[in-house]
Amino acid sequence: MNDIKKTTEQLAFMSGAVTSRCMGCGKCTASCPAFDRMEYHPHQFVYMVETGRIDKLLASKSAFSCLTCFACVERCPRMVEPARLIEAVRLAVERQQGGNRLLPDDVPCVIDDDMPQQAVVAALRKFTK
Amino acid sequence: MKYDYYPGCTLKTKAKELDRCLRASAEALGIQLEELPEWQCCGGVYTTARDEIATKLSAVRALSAARDSTGTLVTVCAGCHNVLKRVNDDVKNDDYFNQRVNNYLLPEKPYLGETRVVHFLELLRDEVGFDEIKKRVVNPIGKKIAPYYGCLLLRPSSVMAFDDPENPTVLEKFVECIGGTPVVSPMRNECCGAYTTVSDPSAAAEYSGKIVDSCVKNGANLIITACPLCQYNLVKRDGRLPVVYFTELLAEALGVKE
Ligand code: SF4
Ligand code: SF4
Predict the structure, then answer these.
(1) What global pTM score does this model have?
(2) Could you tell me the distance, in angstroms and rounded to a whole number, from the CA of residue A30 to the centre of ligand 2?
(3) Cβ(A24) – ligand 2 distance below 6 Å
(4) Tell me, what's the ipTM?
(5) For residues B198 and A112, what is the distance between their CA atoms, to the nearest angstrom?
């Protein structure tokens, strides 16, 4: 239980997101292009962090579907910043041993001749620690 | 008008036209751009976590070099622009970040976010003026052009302050000034799938498909963008319409493309 509390505090610091402001309107999820690929939707991230149920979030692949497009941040009427929370969850997973999602050795298999450097660098930044 | 210029890695390789046409157009318009010496990759994408310091250092180096030069850093890649502008905002407004960065880099004079980060489109709109550009057009581009903004230029609007995040107009005005007809798509500020094109191409195909669909339905013959990754996703993961950089059309309209 203590671990959960500590990780929840860490998520709050990393993200700066104030989950207690959320009024559960779901506008973040309605704005999210990736919501259908997520087991837990953006508003659920907020609720689950607020209520301390982060074990499920850390075990889920949902955070890896986020595009960091910031639509949820822009459109949230309560300035909760769900994308920052999702990024914090993703980093908390990646910072554990074996938590990386994309390894440099995998890159040659997934690129093609036209893929911009920006895509590869960004994917490595988002999926590897 | 003299400014520092940050091209970024992709403009040296896969997006050479974005860079080459920007330089040719800037010269034609009397804008002097000096490439920052010894710039490094901005990091490709901004990491929102406050305790991520190392991934943002190269951006701070570029910003502080520009402070010591002209004081204005011009970008054109939407990715670099987003990273540089947001890191600059962190240095300015987050003491925790500011202290760690300056302790690590130990610059002669601490960097406090003094540099102005300006996207080339903002420069055209606010400092050159679209009316002025219009006077210089020798080859009007008579096409139906759908501007695609994507995410990075607009969001978060509290930091980017680029345009209205839900109803942007700068690219539409740009299209008008080079003689084109803007085709406004309601999907113009939705995400193309970004870097998930590496980890999950089917996701990027779905998001890009919806965007191109909307441009096709609204009668566009062409899409314009400022982002090499958007360009890649819209062409490679969909491909029904040609997608070019806005600087390519500008150079063509000004008669300096070749
Ligand atoms: S930033 Fe992530 S969670 Fe928020 S709308 Fe975009 S894809 Fe969805
Ligand atoms: S949009 Fe904001 S207030 Fe509404 S559910 Fe999402 S986080 Fe909560």
Answers:
(1) 0.96
(2) 10
(3) yes
(4) 0.94
(5) 10
